[in-house]
Design brief:
By secondary structure, the protein is an alpha/beta fold. It contains 4 helices and 8 strands; from the N terminus they run E-H-E-E-E-H-E-H-E-E-E-H.
């Protein structure tokens, strides 16, 4: 018996929603609003969804998210969990400007802006609940830039 013919992968290759389990939803919501991000909608006062280019960022109470995923809050950990989120910016200078805005909004800078060995510029910050974000400029002629363009939503 052969494999059925199909177009594309069995599971769609798309990322549409990133959900952060919030220990303090109000504080986390205030941080992202302090960055000037647009709220798409809020539910029950403790769920908040922000519009971003290409996907949405959802803040959901950690206890409820853990229960929904059949795990415990204790299993969720804190700090660097082997996962970072990235904000790609259009120029190297915008890495520095973005990090400045994050600092003003109360984020913790874990790596100041530096030029990378692959020709870009990068910095890292954490939100009030230690979710790690990279702010990065990727050279427009790079393979990563082309992949981001193909992924959609982010246009220079």
């Amino acid at each position: 018996m052969g494999t059925p013919d199909r177009l594309g992968p069995l599971i769609p290759q798309r990322l549409t929603v990133v959900t952060l389990g919030a220990r303090d939803p109000e504080r986390l919501r205030a941080f992202y609003k302090g960055l000037g991000w647009t709220t798409a909608f809020e539910v029950e006062g403790d769920v908040c969804v922000f519009e971003t280019s290409g996907a949405v960022l959802s803040l959901f109470p950690l206890e409820r998210l853990a229960a929904d995923g059949n795990t415990s809050v204790a299993a969720c950990g804190k700090g660097m969990r082997g996962l970072t989120l990235a904000i790609n910016v259009e120029t190297p200078e915008l890495v520095d400007e973005t990090i400045g805005a994050v600092r003003e909004a109360g984020g913790s800078i874990t790596k100041e802006p530096v030029n990378t060995d692959w020709g870009g510029r990068s910095a890292y910050f954490t939100d009030p609940e230690e979710n790690y974000w990279e702010v990065v400029w990727v050279p427009p002629d790079s393979a990563m830039s082309a992949a981001i363009e193909r992924a959609g939503g982010f246009r220079r």
